[in-house]
């Protein structure tokens, strides 16, 4: 089922490195990996000997709308046949394997993959089983080892998470880090005239509320207040809102004063009537 971030009007990003899952154990993890691929623009999936067979309904559920990747996924009986047409392969592992292979992170892998794909090569990202990861002989078939800077005391990542991190670095590179949306500039910044009018307003009311307890320190305090608002970068809408806030505070204070005066007046009148009656 498509999530809240799904927009069928936007183009679907395809291509990138081939993601190869070796003997994945759970359909849920396959689906989570596929969802991550869809999030970050990878579309080519190969699955080697999935434990629960294929197709897998749970994979569809957890893919959350990235069905086209599942529908086009290729199933292979063994790893050799799954990588036969690739020119460059990175094996993802959290463990040192004692091999003379270059070890790179996901960001470096993204750069390497982009350069090779641009040159017409086919690049693969190899991920192992949920419980045991890749076997050493499987890692030996790769050109480089791909690993992540994780907590050494707890380095095991869920399959979907591992695919998500590597896929994210790929898409961040090819999209130049462009975010999908920005906050629209609906309001223009306040000009100096707007700010000066607001300063006059707030300083006048602060003075009336006896905020400035020392006339000698009032100029310094006033400058500090103005600097606070200058640092914010107020828009015209912000200034209008602040004017309204100050006006509401003043009106509330005046109403409280009026209510207090009315209560005191009522009490005095009642006392006067009592004295007259007692006379």
TrEMBL record:
Stretches of the chain forming a coiled coil according to its record: none
Question: What are the boundaries of the signal sequence?
Answer: none
Instruction: Report the GO molecular function annotations.
Output: RNA binding; tRNA (cytidine(32)/uridine(32)-2'-O)-methyltransferase activity
Please state where this protein is localized: Cytoplasm
GO aspect biological process, one term: tRNA nucleoside ribose methylation
This protein's record includes keyword Aminoacyl-tRNA synthetase: no
Q: Which reaction does it catalyse?
A: uridine(32) in tRNA + S-adenosyl-L-methionine = 2'-O-methyluridine(32) in tRNA + S-adenosyl-L-homocysteine + H(+); cytidine(32) in tRNA + S-adenosyl-L-methionine = 2'-O-methylcytidine(32) in tRNA + S-adenosyl-L-homocysteine + H(+)
Question: What is one Pfam family matched by this protein?
Answer: SpoU_methylase
Keywords (A to Z) from UniProt: Cytoplasm, Methyltransferase, S-adenosyl-L-methionine, Transferase, tRNA processing
Which residue range or ranges hold the tRNA/rRNA methyltransferase SpoU type domain? 18-168
Q: What is its main location?
A: cytoplasm
Query: InterPro entries, alphabetically?
Result: Alpha/beta_knot_MTases, RNA_MeTrfase_TrmJ/LasT, SpoU_MeTrfase, tRNA_m1G_MTases_N
The highest taxon in the source lineage is Bacteria
SUPFAM superfamilies given for it? alpha/beta knot
Q: Does the keyword Acetylation apply?
A: no
What EC number(s) does the entry state? 2.1.1.200
Task: Give the CC-aspect GO terms.
Answer: cytosol
Protein family per UniProt: Belongs to the class IV-like SAM-binding methyltransferase superfamily. RNA methyltransferase TrmH family.
What binding partners and quaternary form does the record give? Homodimer.
* PANTHER family in the cross-refs: TRNA/RRNA METHYLTRANSFERASE, TRNA_RRNA METHYLTRANSFERASE SPOU TYPE DOMAIN-CONTAINING PROTEIN
Q: What does this protein do?
A: Catalyzes the formation of 2'O-methylated cytidine (Cm32) or 2'O-methylated uridine (Um32) at position 32 in tRNA.
NCBIfam families tied to this protein = rRNA_methyl_1 (TIGR00050)
**Which protein are we looking at?**
tRNA (cytidine/uridine-2'-O-)-methyltransferase TrmJ
What organism is the protein native to? Ancylobacter pratisalsi
Q: What is the lineage of its organism?
A: Bacteria, Pseudomonadati, Pseudomonadota, Alphaproteobacteria, Hyphomicrobiales
């Amino acid at each position: 089922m498509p999530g809240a971030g799904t927009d069928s009007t936007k183009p679907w990003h395809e291509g990138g490195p081939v993601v190869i899952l070796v003997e994945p154990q759970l359909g849920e993890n396959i689906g989570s990996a596929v969802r991550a691929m869809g999030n970050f623009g990878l579309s080519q999936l190969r699955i080697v000997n999935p434990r629960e067979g294929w197709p897998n309904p749970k994979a569809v559920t957890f893919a959350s709308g990235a069905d086209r990747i599942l529908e086009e996924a290729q199933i292979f009986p063994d790893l050799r046949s799954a990588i036969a047409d690739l020119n460059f392969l990175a094996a993802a592992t959290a463990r040192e394997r004692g091999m003379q292979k270059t070890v790179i992170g996901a960001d470096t892998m993204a750069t390497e993959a982009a350069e090779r794909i641009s040159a017409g090569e086919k690049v693969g990202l190899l991920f192992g089983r949920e419980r045991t990861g890749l076997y050493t002989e499987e890692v030996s078939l790769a050109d480089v080892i791909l690993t992540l800077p994780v907590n050494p005391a707890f380095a095991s990542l869920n399959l979907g998470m591992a695919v998500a991190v590597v896929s994210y670095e790929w898409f961040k590179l090819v999209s130049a880090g462009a975010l999908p949306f920005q906050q629209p500039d609906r309001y223009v910044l306040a000009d100096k005239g707007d700010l000066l009018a607001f300063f006059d307003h707030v300083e006048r009311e602060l003075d009336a509320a006896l905020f400035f307890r020392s006339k000698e320190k009032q100029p310094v305090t006033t400058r500090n207040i103005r600097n606070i608002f200058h640092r914010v970068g107020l828009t015209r809408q912000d200034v209008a809102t602040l004017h309204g806030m100050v006006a509401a505070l003043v009106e509330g204070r005046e109403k409280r004063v009026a209510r207090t005066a009315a209560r005191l007046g009522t009490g005095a009148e009642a006392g006067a009537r009592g004295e007259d009656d007692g006379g």
